[in-house]
Protein 1
Amino acid sequence: MLELTDLRVHYGNVAAVDGVSVTVEEGEIVAIIGPNGAGKTSTLRALSGLVRASGGRVVFRGVDISRWRPHRIVALGLSHAPEGRRLFPQMTVIENLRMGAYRRRDGLAIERSLAEVLERFPRLAERRRQLAGTLSGGEQQMLTIGRALMSDPTMLVLDEPSFGLAPLIVREIRTIVESINRDRKVAVLLVEQNARMALAVAARAYVMETGRIVLSGPAAALRESPHVKAAYLGG
Amino acid sequence: MSIDLLVQALLNGFGLAMVYVLVALGLTLIFSILEIINFAHGEFYMLGGYVTYYAYALFGLNYFATLGLAILTVGLAGVVAERLIFHDLRGKALNAFIVSLGLLWVMQAGAQLAFGVLDKPVPSAFSGIVRVLGLVISVERLVVTLSAIVLIVALYLFLRLSRPGRAMRAVAQDADAAALQGVNIEAVAALGFGVGCALAGGAGGLLAPVFAVSPAMGALPVVKAFIIIIVGGMGSLPGAVLGGLLLGGVEGLGALFMGSAAVNILGFLMVIAVLLVRPRGLVGGA
Ligand SMILES: Nc1ncnc2c1ncn2[C@@H]1O[C@H](COP(=O)(O)OP(=O)(O)OP(=O)(O)O)[C@@H](O)[C@H]1O
Ligand SMILES: [Mg+2]
């Protein structure tokens, strides 16, 4: 479904992503874990067209989208919930959700998606008229995921959805990601620093350090790897 | 001094200020979408004045038709300017500063070459006065002010209700996030620049019969627009309207006591006073 081949991202002369290859199959949950500054966010920004890759290829649903701009990539079914939530702070919850359906013209189906998202996130339904900028961190993260679902994607890219959230909310987010994947057959590429959470939801995972993939395999196997244990799971 | 006189003075001030609000809203819209200040904004206002002049002088179009033509033509010129000159400068404030200053000189010199340096008078389409509650209002001023208000409301509805308007608000709040929702940022930037210039062009068309049309006519409204923007808060559309009302009130009242040159200084005093109390302007956020 998604295939990154030898992807490179440079900022000036510095390589932030230095030849990364990652695949995600249809309906699969795949995680990328790694420390601060490893290049995880840069990888995601390149695959959704926010930065131009300096090398390599991105193929999504059989189409080479390496040079595409973001708005066309969304339309192809890849939805990206970015790092730091990036909501529209002066818009209400509902307006944010409707922005997620910006490419869609099928009014009735949009209303159906909206109802579905509000059902999945009852807390957003309660706060539908509240400005996004005034939501709590957990609510903002849910709105970010809800907004990403509004484009009716076949693949969801999540950048650190658990960042800054209390353990209870992290568990809730995890349940939501699993249920989205199960109910809607949406493939998920999950970037996380919370390795415990990521390796629990994902079927497969990649470990990224200083711009490269240093380890990859089934999540269960990575949980047992001495390197992952020492560096990411606290021994 | 009678209350009537005060109200009259305020109305006079608000009347012109609403037109300057249009200029300020255009600048603000462009700033919020492209994160640049277009210093050639007054030259698009000037272009609106010339379109009005020639539409009247050559084709004898009526007031509202010339206004519509000014808005459309200058809007289109704005889209072209964005595509040719500004499209790579989104977020690059310094480069845009230099480039837009260059454009200002080119457009002014171009206007001098093409249209001549002399003032071109545009005759008033409306004459006479109306008396309301003891107030005396010139019909021309009334039409100008109401037209400006209609355009402000139209802009508000466009931003609130239309799909491109929604995209513009999204880009203004977070351009990357808007792109990830499927907004074509380049198209929105071009359209936003066009709409911003169209507002300036409309203002130029509205004031063409009030002042004369000349290559340098853009300087004054842009100064007023900057005062409005700084008082209201950079990037805030409601702030621009509020700033305009304040400027209009201050200038209107000031005109009771002093000459027009001195009145122009009042705006700057107001800027200083507001910035001392609220450095980000009245409606300025982060
Ligand atoms: N716009 C930018 N300009 C210059 N350097 C950048 C830019 N964005 C990221 N970098 C650098 O690229 C490297 C990778 O950053 P990136 O944000 O991709 O890492 P990350 O793995 O997502 O980190 P974190 O877990 O902290 O979010 C870092 O060294 C960062 O400083
Ligand atoms: Mg990151």
Note: Residues A 11, 16, 34, 36-42, 83, 193 surround adenosine-5'-triphosphate (ligand 1) (CB under 6 Å).
Protein 2
Amino acid sequence: MKLLLEHAHVEGIRYYDAYRKHGGYRSVEKALKMSPDEITEEVKKSGLRGRGGAGFPTGMKWSFLAKPEGVPRHLVCNADESEPGTFKDRYLMEFIPHLLVEGLIVSSYALGSNLTFIYIRGEYAWIVDILEQAIAEAKSNGWLGKNIAGSGFDCEIYVQRGAGAYICGEETALLESLEGKRGNPRIKPPFPAVKGLWGRPTVVNNVETLAAVVPIINMGGEEYAKIGVGRSTGTKLMSACGNINKPGVYEIDMTISVEEFIFSDQYCGGIPKGKRLKACIPGGSSVPILPANLLLKTAKGETRYMNYESLSDGGFQTGSMLGSGGFIVFDEDQCVVRHTMSLAHFYMHESCGQCSPCREGTGWMYRILKNIEYGKGKMSDIELLWDIQGKIEGNTICPLGDAAAWPVAAAIRHFRDEFEWHVLNPEESQTRNYGLAHYADPVYVPAVS
Amino acid sequence: MAEGTPNFKVTIDNITIEVPAGTSILEAARKIGGDVTPPAMCYYSKLEGSGGKCRTCLVEVSKGSEKDPRPMPKLVASCRTGVMDGMEVKNITSPRVIEARKGVVEMLLINHPLDCPICDQAGECDLQDLSYEHGTEGTRFEFDKRVFEKEDIGDYIQLHMTRCILCYRCVYTADQLTGERQHGVLERGERSEISTYLGKSLHNDFIGNVIDVCPVGALTDKTFRFKQRVWFTKPVDAHRDCENPKCCGKVRLWMRGDEVFRVTARKDQWGEVEGWICNECRFHKKETKDWIIEGPSNVSRYSVISQGHYVNTVPQPKIIDKVIGKEPKLLLNIHDVSEVNRPEIELSEIPGPAHSDDFEKKDDKKLNN
Ligand SMILES: Cc1cc2nc3c(=O)[nH]c(=O)nc-3n(C[C@H](O)[C@H](O)[C@H](O)COP(=O)(O)O)c2cc1C
Ligand code: SF4
Ligand code: SF4
Ligand code: FES
């Protein structure tokens, strides 16, 4: 089932003519005949949840937007996409930029934003050109600017490049950066819906979230909600990488199983060289890593599916999260200690440094992990790591602190014996990997179809 | 307190008070005073936007409000969380808070040089006080600490980033008091550092106040550095008619005999300045004839510096017996563990200048007669 990427590979779809020919901008025509509140109502009915990581219901977020008389409001599209393992927004913007522009126009109309921004990761420099080209085309065809399609609604979209900071993906740090300041997350409350960009009510949404508004308006919220399962409605873009045969971006209907996603040829195509599955981070680097046995089946022995509820089944004890959809697969040759160290390095490097537990704790965890990885660890270091992550989690201004703590916690929770093996075998651990141990998947035999 | 602001009832560690809507939990706790007041290393009531960063003031909200009694799932920064009517807060009665605060203190200390004996701030350092009160004994950090070169930012102020805890108070002070934005934070994460724009020195009438707001020894007064340990000087309140309209002119002189070693703003019991003073008063008025002396200061803070050497020390109100639950760890009495600062010596009663000799045993005779 494809809603977002259906036409992504049509010749010339990056440009207006081909995009329009394949049904582009129909949702704008339809939306401008509706009232802004009716659009919000459709989004609510669709059950769409934020695709940026937290999974917050989008319609509800929109309805929280304060609307004081005479104060401008803004929509800001979060295209900062810097989470290791996540590259779905890039794909969407690069191949089918008009879908985002279209979604932004409809959403801006619904929220009353006459000035809308795309805040894009600085490293996506070439995509800025693609987006600006699409915006210019939309404008010259009357979908942006003054009095769009005779509706009386004015809207401009601007693209702003970030300067290479993961933290600027956190919505309030993003707003600070957009205002031209240092990208430090703000202390909440007040929330952006009340005081956002330049103190004005603001909605910040992910690229994919805003693109999904297009099919929702085209097909109606109720129809959209029929796709998927439970509170995981619609389709989801997954960026799959690691030890798989077919890394890339896949649009999934959230009813498929994790097993099908990894092993079927339609998606990741299994693990190269016949190796076995060891572990997986299913939703971007911030979510807990799961060993194969807990990934394919929940602790209750039920099949695990690729959706919000099923991936988080069991909480952090035995589950993980769908997060931002960055699906990282590890085969039997991967070292969990090494990967945890490299993630810890990332969070140390990306902490903004405002709050003491995150500023100091991330660097401390990295140094301990480095010792363990390089054969200089002590048994007590594992306990210490556990303690430090617990002191960071929940005690910081923004969720980056949690995002730094969770991967360490999950690695120790599920792979403690691998950490202990590193400590007990400092020399051997420099020459070989621990291997699969008891986390192994039940040897996978592809179903003959 | 605006007319018509409703009053909210809030209970902190089982003590209930009423405060106007819009008050933060920390400010409400300060009204109660004593041990139920969370420590604050970054919040500064006189600086807009301050707080929320150090996380030492974390508290548990066990009941959100009368209307919505659900507890808050995470600990919250009391300095930046407003009270609600009927809210119930646990500070020292929450083992979770005590544990988290211990963690925060440990984090603040891992990269802090633990060389108080050679630091100019010793004796009046908020971090020193904090670690006595809420910290643990040893360190579990076994790596090299972060170090920076000392930097002169102007003629009067030295920045030693190695000691900085990134509370951002100086940044807000420079921003809000001096009108020119020349002082801020470079880099990020543990590599963050306070710096001036393009390494420029800071010149303006009020920049000296960054020294007073700095909770640690990162920003120090070059006209005073290492001239004297603070506990050998006598704090005396004084004022003058300052020409600068923004300067309050009310200061504290740190004297030895008739000599004025240092001029600072007066600080209240929370360690916050009562009013800002200009550079002229701070750096250039170092003679008693410049000032109208009011008398010895009340050193009201229950801190290392106030341990026994000063008359007029305002004791910490004891309200522990009202608090049910966990007893807080009381501030360590330095005389229990150290012979150096001798309790029988009342510094402000020594007639002439106080010298380190006065604290040495061999001089007992001199003191006793
Ligand atoms: C450290 C950090 C980085 C983030 N990076 C991104 C990002 O790159 N893109 C994104 O859409 N959301 C990111 N988020 C989540 C945003 O704060 C915000 O929740 C999201 O943009 C809301 O959009 P949604 O409701 O459409 O998901 C990040 C959050 C944190 C804490
Ligand atoms: S948690 Fe980390 S990234 Fe977030 S505000 Fe605190 S220091 Fe900055
Ligand atoms: S120099 Fe002092 S006041 Fe400035 S941020 Fe560092 S600790 Fe705070
Ligand atoms: S005083 Fe509240 S977080 Fe620093």
Note: Residues 95-110 of chain B form the longest helix (16 residues).
